[in-house]
Amino acid sequence: MNKNAFRQLSYGVYVVSTWDNGRATGCTANSAMQITSDPATIAVSINHDNYTNQCIQDTGRFAISILGEHSDPGIIGTFGFKSGRDNNKFDEVESLVKGYMPVVADACAYIVCEVVDKMETSTHTVFLGKVVDADVLKQDDAMTYAYYHNVIKGKSPKNAPTYIAEEQPAATGTKYVCGVCGYEYDGEVPFEELPDDYTCPVCKQPKSVFVKKG
User: Fold this and answer.
1) 137-154 pLDDT per residue, tens
2) Whole-angstrom Cα distance, residue 107 to residue 137?
3) pTM of the model
4) Which end of the chain is less crowded, N or C, counting CB atoms within 10 A of the terminal residue's CB?
5) Which domain covers residue 140, as residue numbers?
């Protein structure tokens, strides 16, 4: 089976958020889809290991912040490569409360849902939500999963439904790769000459976590 066929499916890049006893929390997701139009119903897939999963189970509500091509890519790293158990992720981004739920301000749109059903798989919960609020926050093209990979050069967190372990290609030159999210630095300035306070544009980790390859 060639799992690369799955990459031909269409995905977006989202932050799925909810409350954790009054504290906003959430995670990056790429599997969200509209199931019906009347009543408007949305499905999202969240890994069992993601803290957000348990918080949605507890609150019975979730919000989807739809990231745009001009959204700060660091949002993806903040919500995709850190755990809400140990980090107050919303402290690192500007947020809004819409439909009584936390959403990312730097998104092109949001959707708020009330859980009406769920389906369990071996690794993920698919939450089915009735839409109770939705709006456009700014004019921007929604970020696709392909844009995230091909333009931002981002990688999938291991808990993502679409994660596929990639074979490492043979080295064709020296590269510096983020040891947390896999981002490859290919800027015009030599990596060694970057300032010490340089951070990964995807997961915001310091320069020290980059590994020299090739």
Assistant:
1) 999 999 887 777 677 655
2) 7
3) 0.76
4) N
5) 11-150
